[in-house]
Design brief:
Oligomer: homotetramer
Shape of chain A: elongated
Largest interface: A-B, 56 and 56 residues
CATH class of the largest domain in chain A: Alpha Beta
Order of helices and strands of chain A: EHEEHEEEEHEHEHEHEHEHEHHEHEE
CATH superfamily of the largest domain in chain A: Aldolase class I
Low-confidence stretches of chain A: none
Strand order of the largest sheet of chain A: 13-12-11-10-9-8-7-14
Number of strands of chain A: 16
Helix content of chain A: 25-40%
Mean pLDDT of chain A: 91
């Protein structure tokens, strides 16, 4: 930890900070500049709240040296986390990327969901997505089928052999969702719902954590840290677009550089959701391919058997014919990527 | 609702959209431009998902005409909502602004909290703040005293007569928090935790809803709409800073224009939290005064009896001496504002 | 300067950085942590490009300790810069705030401009604003009257005694604008037009520098530094709103905390433009008053004798009647601020 | 154009707007909703300033239907613009993407530049980049070699046959830069320097226009429109990262979705600069490949013969060995893309 003192800080003020740090077991190096003094404190930052140092008189700024996430960091685990499912599907590391496809929300009759699931199976996808509990910006929008939706997903899994990923929105619903899902999704708007992070950390199913729309990469990895810290090592990260200043042509700004950054700083798998990340159907194909070439461990995309009648997110959903075309192109690309050699295209 | 068709949209594509809208009870006006066709659909947008129209072939863009929030809007209620508490404190409308003060989190022994509470009382504050359940970015940070913290707050209320505002983080904890709090706070990171919004909407205690760091004003008012829609009309909005591109000197960008904007579009009271909004102690006084002059119905600020030893947010907390000085200045300003005349300073 | 090495940095890599720094005259302190090594380099950062250190193998991050602006900093000049004009008007320090008012652009006949100028004079304003060269997002919009517009402004100055502030967009036009203006404005979109900054730095007229829509406060002060460094000490800063993620109700996010922040880190005067900062007429009054209470040294606002027919920015311009009402309220507030005592409202 | 009136707008207010629009040649459709009235105005928006309508009493919002750029739009030109150089190099459309490589700034002796140029030639690049005039955030940083630098670039062109792209910062320098450059670059910070846009529009050399760090895609295309409108049809757009809320691991947020969006809305070529777009050397390869797969017409990247001693941007520059490795990987990918078939990877 580095503490930068104000230009006019007094010796007394510097001593106060130094004493406080020493009393918490830090070793101290003092660096006197011409204008300012810099205190380097070496030790475990958990022993003292770095922010609390900001409150000492004479302190201008406190800078962390080490990333504040530990279990999620490359330093704590050099090898990539690879999550393996009973049916042999693997996510992470140098494994072939997975494709998660399905409707935004499970709706009405099961037939539409099955139609999508069979198409996903046919095109080589591994995982079926679908929301039974729906976070909706407006209370006037469709809120999801809840348990009935989970049952539909389970039936689709039985018929196709696809794994199921679905969102949990609240600790109260978690036991129910854990019963049905193969992967439990934490939505972007719940990325810092710490009670929910803690709860899924105590369960055993792999968790897919979506990046919050205003979350820095550091905050994103700290959210994952909450899950790891509570005992669940199987976290899949998902970049799904962040809030930017330009929402004329897209809902969000898809931050693809997050993929190689996260692969540098963490061992956890990272996938990309271009459907939410852009909000536009015509951008799914180019952004999926870009994400894969940038090193993503998978893609999540929305497909609906009848997007014009979808209760949510029709505009960013592919219909089945479009989906098959996009998947053909993605499969061609995946066939060219050498996963044993850092995702080079050969 | 306005639907803008692509320049090359076919007659068939236009007809599809028109038929779909008519079948949902909309009246249609067609506006043929030289390049594009614009469909004006008059009726209740709840009858159709505007976003689903985006998924029709040939549609470029769908624009809402009316704000998507209803109960929170000025159109639905012309008069300001004024929330009145049993002890006579009022929040909203042309009432004198309220000051909420207290530590970020309730910690250790009760003495520190009481010291702050007595100072708040002395300086004319109406409400004591303090977190018993703490949302923390890192799992290694202090997570709150939970029920013990609520008991301390209740004791401080009894001793000072101040009202208590405290955060609830999860539906499971809600009954407990409702038992102790006078105002239940939804934190910024839970602004779109829709299960929690729904739950507080079904309880009777007034709710203070903090703006999410990436929430537009429209999303903020839609989050309030979830609470209103579920039956609780007593919502206090709180602007607490949004994510911006400059975090060198502040934690967040405090969006003070949100105050007069919300007063134009909604009847709900709006207060400002300059402690979280800036993250810097020296900015609390100028930003509090600016907020009051801009028309805020109140201020929430962090005060700690010993900020250097605070478990959270010490850097943005005033100590008691500083707090008294800031409050003296704020009280002087409040004494100059003519609340019966639109907050003019006279 | 602090250089943080990667966790796996080798001794050779650390030595390379240290040697490089020593050869440029820096004193070095090495801080070995358990995981990472931190190099503290004490000396003048101008001797080495901090960014170039980033390129050494094994370097994770380079952090500056001192602000990179010097002449603009409080450290280089403790006393506030106060700019005094021949007619006695002063800007900065503890002086009474100045009001700059006038149309966005000078247009058509001089009568409209004069009408505004007389109203500004009547209401106690000190400075007339008006654009003769207009930066316009679209080439199809009105581009300004150029020299004719400058002549109108000069005539209005002669008739009212107001000072004139007007924008220069290009080094080629600078001699002309310097001939007419009392204050030369650099627009937000030219904040990092370094050739223009250098050029106005070599002239003698005071410069009003508007903050770029994506400029951090540090970049803003560095832009001012270009002017100071080239010889012109009379720089007035102007906060005019930054790009944010919410442009539904405002054009920009007005960053009022920038006022007290800049007053802490710099001695230069800082004023606020709520017209561009919000883009909405009804927000000018509350945001002007908030800016003044937050410590702004002045306000710039747009007034047009006939906003409905304005060639630019009508929506954010007050008409003369509205302007007089707003100014009455502002004057009342200014009368209450004690400038000899840190802008307290008494 | 769509004008949305306030809920309480009077008939007189509606009539005022309608009369104003009719007098400017617009056809009017009135759409009366239950709460608000919407005026659809059909005609050429250049006949009236849409923003000026905002200033009418009773107007809530003015929405454009057509994009405000015309010459840059797909509607005005269906076929892609392909820029062809005398030596046969082509940029745009379905042509093989071009690679622009070279140092951030031309420095010291010519040998380093030549070393980079020969490597670029060897690896199949078409264009040499290098700055002779340097926009620098701080006045204390290296400002460029000016004409001497241009001479070096010309010599490198002569020796390698590469085309030269270099930045112009000011209208005064334009004749000089036009003498030496094959492509004249407008830097990100000058994207809305309208005098400069107008000036390069009147010259004949192709222009590479970089996106401003806070520019929306619409503003970006409007900046291009200034060049096209002044007579120069050869504009290459360059995405180079935008300001975001997270600058911990990157300088900017690279907005790759801008590539397919711009290809939908405009016929102009669009390239990507991952060096500035991320600021980190290790991100150049994955982001370059992602950009190409997303459909970019080219890549611009920084290469320096000795990045540790670079006067600018060393951290984001590849050294020659790294560059050759990255280019080998990029060439492999380019060899797999079918440009006659929408950039599919086969």
């Amino acid at each position: 930890m580095i503490i930068i003192m104000e230009p006019g800080a007094t010796k007394q003020q510097i001593d106060n900070v130094v004493e406080h740090l020493k009393s918490h077991g830090f070793r101290i190096n003092l660096n006197y500049g011409d204008v300012m003094t810099v205190i380097a404190a070496i030790g475990d930052k958990r022993l003292v709240q770095p922010h609390s140092l900001n409150s000492f008189e004479g302190v201008r700024e406190v800078k962390l040296i080490q990333e504040p996430f530990k279990l999620a960091s490359r330093e704590s685990q050099k090898e990539d986390t690879v999550i393996e499912f009973p049916n042999g599907v693997k996510i992470g590391g140098l494994e072939r990327p997975v494709i998660m496809a399905g409707p935004c929300s499970v709706e009405r009759e099961i037939d539409g969901l099955l139609e999508v699931a069979y198409a996903a199976k046919e095109m080589g996808c591994q995982i079926l997505r679908g929301g039974a509990f729906k976070p909706r910006t407006s209370p006037y929008d469709f809120q999801g089928m809840e348990e009935k939706g989970l049952q539909y997903l389970a039936e689709a899994r039985e018929k196709t052999g696809l794994l199921v990923v679905t969102e949990v929105m609240d600790t109260l619903d978690l036991p129910l969702v854990e019963d049905y899902a193969d992967i439990v999704q934490i939505g972007a708007r719940n990325m810092q719902n710490f009670k929910l992070l803690k709860a899924v950390g105590k369960y055993s199913k792999p968790v897919m954590l979506k990046r919050g729309p205003a979350a820095t990469i550091r905050e994103f990895l700290l959210a994952a840290e909450h899950i790891l810290y509570n005992g669940n090592p199987n976290v899949i990260l998902c970049e799904r677009g962040i809030k930017g200043f330009d929402s004329t042509y897209t809902r969000n700004t898809l931050d693809l550089a997050a993929v190689p950054i996260i692969k540098k700083y963490s061992h956890l798998p990272i996938i990309v959701d271009p459907s939410h990340g852009t909000g536009k159907r015509y951008l799914i194909e180019p952004m999926s391919k870009a994400a894969l070439v940038a090193g993503a461990h998978g893609i999540m995309m929305e497909v609906h058997h009848d997007p014009d009648r979808a209760y949510s997110d029709g505009a960013q959903s592919l219909n089945i014919e479009q989906f098959k075309k996009v998947m053909a192109s993605i499969n061609q690309l995946i066939g060219r990527i050498d996963y044993s050699n850092k995702h080079a295209v050969v």
